Amino acid sequence: MSLAAAPFTSLPTPLPAPERTKTRLLELIKRHGPQTAQDLAYKLEVSVPAARRHLCDLQDGGLIESRTERPGGRGRPQHVFALTDQGEASFPKTYSGLCVDVLRHVQQLFGQGAVMQVFDARSAEIAARLQAEVPLSAPLPVRVQAFVRVLCEMGFDAVLEQDGDTWLVSKRNCPNLTVARQFQELCVSELTMYQTLLGVPMTRETRIACGQSTCLYRIGP
């Protein structure tokens, strides 16, 4: 009698030991606040030089920073390691869910138009901040290229192409996708902001929030 082979379930590949140690170091700093190399080595049960090597790697990667603090506000200054903003961002966050909840309450309390007013105020503030980087006095090709650089810095992974007399800008990532899927006002407001920033007409032909692979914008006549 033959026996059926048991189904094989692949297990996730474990992190290499050095990476596991770095992850544990980040978790310890996250949970307990700024720590000395000695404290971290003790908690990890590794030597201080070994802990320092991993800390240097994390510091080179921009995940932690070193600074001097007095424990409890007094005593001798200590050299400690703390998370940077990039290090904080490596831990799970629920900002998008919180944003959607807040906007839903704004809509319920003040009406549909209130959400649009919130997005328009945000867009006006962003446009004012970016105007120096995309000056209206510059020629259109220069403005468009600067505009795409700004989009990339904002996390949109944008690319630029020319199609005859028009420019095509493709945003291949939407860092605000959770919000954009539930509040199309965000995309409407962003389009208005882009036109204000560039000072020329612009149309949007595709949207990631609608299930397409990119947000495609056509700039020009």
TrEMBL record:
CDD domains from the xrefs?
HTH_ARSR
| Family matches, as Pfam families | HTH_20
- In terms of superkingdom, the source organism counts as Bacteria
Which InterPro entries does the record associate with it? ArsR-like_HTH (IPR011991), WH-like_DNA-bd_sf (IPR036388), WH_DNA-bd_sf (IPR036390)
Instruction: Give the SUPFAM superfamilies listed for this entry.
Output: Winged helix' DNA-binding domain (SSF46785)
Q: What is this protein called?
A: Transcriptional regulator
